[in-house]
Amino acid sequence: MDLEARAHAEHPDELRLWLRLLTCTQLIEREIRSDLREQWGTTLPRFDLMAQLERAPDGLRMNQLSRRMMVTGGNITGITDQLEAEGLVERTGVEGDRRAFQVRLTAKGRKQFNAMAQAHEAWIVNAFAGLSAREIQTLHGLLGKVKQHFLAEV
Fold first, then answer.
1. How many angstroms separate the Cα of 34 from the Cα of each of 41, 49, 114, 120?
2. Nearest-angstrom CA–CA distance, 15 and 6
3. Which residue of 1, 42, 61, 83 is most buried, as measured by CB atoms within 10 A?
């Protein structure tokens, strides 16, 4: 049973909407995880780490990756070790800080990530294929209002 199925008509519409959003997110994420595993033999955390590095051509420090991905340094180290062993990233020391490392995509990593990112984009487009272009724009705008309301309160 998904999260949405737990809500009943007597619950506020806002709660039911929240549960629908969570359910949709989980369904899409499960499909993306499956597609990454089947087509690329990789995981979503590995893809996410490579995406962060793709946006930072000069690389990022391990602690920056940890903050951006909101996971522990140990998680980043494990993923980086795997990607480095496959020749997809390289780790270099940071001058002036013997404990810090900078990580960046290798040419092989950049090429593989670009191919994965194209496939990922197509999967996301397909995930919303049940909506018209206008419905997508409307939903995007409405969720933007929710985001702005939340950010205004913080």
1. 9, 17, 19, 11
2. 10
3. 83
Helix axis angle for 62-69 and 44-54, nearest 10°, is 120
Please report, for residues 33, 88, 109, 112, 118, the alpha-carbon distance to residue 115 in angstroms, rounded to integers and kept in the order given: 16, 13, 10, 5, 5
Give tens-digit pLDDT for 126-151. Answer: 999 999 999 999 999 999 999 999 99
Tokens 């809500």 -> residue: 7
Tokens standing for residue 34: 């499956």
CA nearest neighbour of 54 among 93, 106, 129, 7: 106
pTM: 0.86
Q: Which two tokens stand for residue 57?
A: 């051509």
Domains detected in the chain:
1-41 (no CATH), 42-153 (1.10.10.10)
The encoded tokens of residue 59 equal 């690389």
- Buried/exposed code over 118-149 (b: 16+ C-beta within 10 A; e: otherwise): eebeebeeeeeeeeeeeeeeeeeeeeeeeeee
